Amino acid sequence: MAADTSDIVLERVTKSYENGHRALGGLSLAVPRGSIMGFVGLNGAGKSTTIRLLAGLEHADEGTVTVLGHPAMSRPPAVAARIGFVLDDPFYFDWLSGREYSIWTGMMYGLHRDVSERRTAELLALLDLPADDRQLIGTYSTGMKKKISLAAALIHAPSLLILDEPLEAVDAVAARTIKDILTDLASRGATVFITSHALDTVERFCTDVCIIHEGRIMVQSPMASLADAVQPLLGEHAGSTLEENFVSLVAPSSTRRRLSYV
């Protein structure tokens, strides 16, 4: 593992739950600094579990989880302040407006109130969110809640963003804006770790890709050289797109059958 040039490193990580489900089975992964890593897999593959481990919300049973050079569960506050998260089921203060929530989040990250207010105004305008206090988060649509979560993750200009389905439920214009923001951040040296089921978006947007299946990494590669990375696994069945290779790697043949009456 190239830990010295990676902002996220997992080494031989296992995680099981009380119901006996084994979510991760010896997962090892290094995310290069300054990359936009697309972390893709089927439902239940272990994506959200991985992100919860990175967020320090859960302990690994075995192995190590390192974020920005520190153990995920014991990183110092100064390191935590360099990370932005959008989790799969974020907690909102529904009784606050988006503006109030964003300003408060910025101040929790140590920003002066005037700085947090200025950045909030810019983020709300960019993401097309209400700029006043009349509409509370509790009345937001799913897409609006996703956008205010992203605003809160960006308010402190993090050097690492860990985002679980940040484009889910947002409209096409907002999705384009979000991708532009993340691309700009990565061009300035930030690392972006993103899960998404939209494989065509991942292929066009991400610099790197990692395919997880049943709690294990199947392929990790720069996007530009994915075809070479899957060749040893798929041989003549290797495809030309991320979607083709993903389906060939993780989908059982039964899922590719057609309906008899169509």
Average pLDDT taken over every residue: 91
Query: What percent strand?
Result: 15-25%
How much helicity do the residues have?
25-40%
- As residue ranges, the low-confidence spans are none
Tags for this model:
6-stranded mixed β-sheet, 24% strand, 262 residues, globular, 4-stranded antiparallel β-sheet, alpha/beta
Polypeptide structure, described:
With 262 residues, this protein is an alpha/beta fold. Helices cover 35% and strands 24% of the residues. The chain is built from nine helices and ten strands. It has helices at residues 47-54, 77-80, 98-108, 113-126, 142-154, 172-187, 199-205, 226-234, 242-250; strands spanning 6-16, 22-32, 36-40, 62-67, 70-71, 83-86, 160-164, 191-195, 208-213, 216-222. It has a six-stranded mixed sheet with strand order 6-7-8-3-9-10, sandwiched between helices. Strands 2-1-4-5 form a four-stranded antiparallel sheet, with helices on one face. Helix 3 (98-108) packs across helix 4 (113-126). The radius of gyration is 19 Å and the shape is globular. The model has no long low-confidence stretch (mean pLDDT 91).
